Automatic annotation (TrEMBL):
Gene3D superfamilies: Winged helix-like DNA-binding domain superfamily/Winged helix DNA-binding domain. This is Winged helix-turn-helix transcriptional regulator. SUPFAM superfamilies: Winged helix' DNA-binding domain (SSF46785). Residues 1-95 form the HTH arsR-type domain. Keywords: DNA-binding, Transcription, Transcription regulation. Coiled coil: none annotated.
Amino acid sequence: MDRSKALAALSALAHETRLDLIRLLTPRGEEGMAAGQIAETLGIAAPRLSFHLAALEQAGLLRSRKAARNVFYSVDVRAIGSTMAYVLNHCCCDHPEVRAACTHGVAGGQGAVSSGTEKT
């Protein structure tokens, strides 16, 4: 991944609603979810949802496909992984403590990935 793509992806991710979208869609894999179902699940009005989906899709983090009258969105997990790899390898210089903080289930809870349900 080059720098400009990494910056576009990180910029797109720098919003609470967009992180919620990634969190919602990632477990659904390639199948994804219909836009209407996403709006209902997250309680977001259609125009606002469309704005955020477009930002993530432009950054290459989401894919869309039409099926009948619905548009389904799914996460491009490879693009998410490439973005994280860029940060780890090019910004954090693959520092072992940074890598350790990214690991699930670190003893004592330090560095464990949160559920993301907290509002900050």
